[in-house]
């Protein structure tokens, strides 16, 4: 049976996988923000006891995976698949976190869309009948991202008004083929969208058109209306990107009043000097595995559309004058099947 | 229905997807090697008409995708998914190749295992009922890899005896839910194996134990014997890594006399100054989409086990003194379902 219409981008899962556990780990700045109460572990020392920022990022992934498994009352060896990725060159945050994990591993690269991509892929593997348990995992670290994408922290570079602040954090979801929800009911896989933005400090503007295309495809494919979701959450367009996305739908005669963004939720935009908000794979991962899923479990929201956005640039592509290819993958999460 | 046993690593596809098209593109050195007759396009100029090596790599991916679609008599818009990845930082080879491609894109990072990983994932998506057509695509480029992982070419660094030569090439497979084969019948997803090798110029030794674990898991999960395959092909252990893999099985009382390696097949190891052989995502991709699949179509082989091996290191992890986490994913390809 084909559960995706010809030419469509959305899979409607026949047996929606259940979110059996979710957990996150963040650094000090995230712990000082408005979502502090939704984090499982807030570390005051962003090194997480490691000697390098890259190793700290791997340590966060291991902590998030372990905590999520704990909540699902499972051990790593039950996992049929771990889908993970991060922003570091050659995804070493994930590759090194996987050492010693007794589970099949599939590495992804979707930049800041990785939480959504891994959730969509893990859901597909379980719905497809290829296993009982899967993990979706990602991370980012302010200090490793700054020195890799921009300049080492010691340089003290000035940030532009459109810049976003890379979240130090890792989030993990454990999916089960059977369970009591919340359920991943749909996955909409994005296409690359590149509208010619070349400013690597303005990711929100670059990624907003990709979010627009994927969300529009989701509505077209499913016949759903925006009002059927309590929240449509992008991750992470930031303040400017969110405004652009709102405007793009407004031009179509559609006001998305339930639109919000992980990058604007995670920090106090006025008080924490983060300019346009949070970013990085870890941003949408920790907001989803904390604030959003906790809220669903508490009955605050019944249906959300989680839209991970990624900017697939590198410092090399920027230096070579290239514009930024962007992508957005969306997962519909519901308290009922 | 679950088509993977509990605790196993191997999916036995209920409706094995068919390889509807396969094509490859290589540079001059690969075109001078023993497999020249199996390449669709040999470019004498490794720049592929582009201004940078990174852009050349994207150009190769676009050419390979287009040629494979042409052989499958399809256009890109029929594709339900493109799975692609490469070795470049933030996988820009793939991300930029996907600009303007009208198809959902899922980015992977599996280092040199990417051809196997993308083939396994694309097969799972079709067998799972999530679409009709999918592409598996990857590339590597000697010049972009050298300057990223080691030193710029102009530096003229001396190569160690255990070094492998990164293949300049891209390979693509178009999978169809229905077709006349060859078919992808099984996918064995690997776990990370790290035996403590720290020498980034000795990938074969680092990756051989990962290949050993995945191939062993494949036999355990399926109950198959090595002799049921005409070829067991790793990609890319090179000469030294292949010998280690043979020895590991020999210690178990099993002589894999049908073992071969894409890295030793692609070059003339004596005459082309490549030391231990070829490597890079493109190596196993172009050998699979040329020599191996052409041979299957010509009736030379009926069953092969294609085992992509990846070393998930980065220059940063090497500089920080870390050993190399490795992985191997295997796809069983057969002329009959």
From TrEMBL, chains A, B:
Transmembrane segments: none annotated. InterPro entries: SpoVAD, SpoVAD_sf, Thiolase-like. One of its GO terms (molecular function) is acyltransferase activity. Pfam families: SpoVAD. Signal peptide: none annotated. This is Stage V sporulation protein AD. It comes from Lawsonibacter hominis.
């Amino acid at each position: 049976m084909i559960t995706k219409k010809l030419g469509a981008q959305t899979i409607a899962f026949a047996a929606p996988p259940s979110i059996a556990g979710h957990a996150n780990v963040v650094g000090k700045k995230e712990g000082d923000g408005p979502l502090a109460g939704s984090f499982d572990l807030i570390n005051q020392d962003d090194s997480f006891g490691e000697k390098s920022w890259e190793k700290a990022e791997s340590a966060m992934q291991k902590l998030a995976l372990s905590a999520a498994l704990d909540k699902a009352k499972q051990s790593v060896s039950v996992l049929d698949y771990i889908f993970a990725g991060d922003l570091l060159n050659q995804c070493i945050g994930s590759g090194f976190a996987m050492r010693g994990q007794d589970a099949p591993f599939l590495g992804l690269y979707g930049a800041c869309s990785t939480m959504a991509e891994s959730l969509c892929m893990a859901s597909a593997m379980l719905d497809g009948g290829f296993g009982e348990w899967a993990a979706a995992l990602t991370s980012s670290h302010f200090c490793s991202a700054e020195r890799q994408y921009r300049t080492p922290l010691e340089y003290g570079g000035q940030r532009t008004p459109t810049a976003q602040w890379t979240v130090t954090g890792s989030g993990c979801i454990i999916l089960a083929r059977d369970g009591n929800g919340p359920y991943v009911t749909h996955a909409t896989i994005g296409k690359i969208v590149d509208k010619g933005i070349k400013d690597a400090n303005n990711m929100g503007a670059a990624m907003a058109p990709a979010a627009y295309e994927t969300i529009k495809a989701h509505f077209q494919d499913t016949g759903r209306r925006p009002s059927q979701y309590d929240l449509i959450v992008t991750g992470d367009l930031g303040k400017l990107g969110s405004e652009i996305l709102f405007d793009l739908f407004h031009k179509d005669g559609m006001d998305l009043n339930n639109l919000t963004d992980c990058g604007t939720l995670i920090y106090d935009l006025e008080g924490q000097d983060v300019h346009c908000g949070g970013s990085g794979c870890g941003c949408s991962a920790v907001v989803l595995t904390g604030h959003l899923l906790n809220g669903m479990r508490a009955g605050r929201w019944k249906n959300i559309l989680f839209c991970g956005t990624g900017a697939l640039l590198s410092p090399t592509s920027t230096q070579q004058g290239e514009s930024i290819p962007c992508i957005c993958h969306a997962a519909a999460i519901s308290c009922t099947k």
